[in-house]
Amino acid sequence: MPIKAVIFDMGGVLLRTTDHTPREQLSKELGITRCELERIVFASDSSLLAETGQISEAQHWDHVLDRLNIPQEQRQEFQRKFWSKDRVDDDLIDYIRKLRACYRTGLLSNAWDGIRPALHMRFPHMLDVFDVVMFSAEVGMRKPDARYYHWILEILGVAAEEAIFVDDYPLNVEAAKQIGIKAVQFLDPEQTRREISELLNHKTGRKG
After folding, report:
1. Which residues pair with 185 in a beta bridge?
2. Contact 97, 127 (CB under 8 A)
């Protein structure tokens, strides 16, 4: 089957931390490593609940900051510093924009409920290159749940074998492969574009 859609993860692929210095500084002040801090923010029980919409992003942050014993008057600044070096890969966004001329494009992300307005505020044109944007907190499912992949495929109007999926997390890549999607693990932008091009193999699947 010709490829008709290309679907991307967001965090770690399109939106990446370009400088870890602020998180290293926060971690040092807390007496923990940066990896430990990021695990608390991204992989704690409250984060998983927030990713499936069972609690709000604000409630999740309350859990995180309570656990870290951050005083109320410092919490807003803590969050600002934590996110301060996250940047969108504009070159990769431009690449997706070009793909969209011939293929359906999708964004499939595990994310908390506040992400859509936050992206519109910080990176206003990032979502414009996608035909479908799906955030886990908005639908109550998260990767690697197969239902989540099937849902975006249905909305895009393509079969699993007609789609490519890109994610930096091996478990999510493997889950996509298990249902028949051609999946690429993101290691760096150049490698990702090369592997997508190889899968497309110069075929001309059209939008529709």
Report:
1. 167
2. no
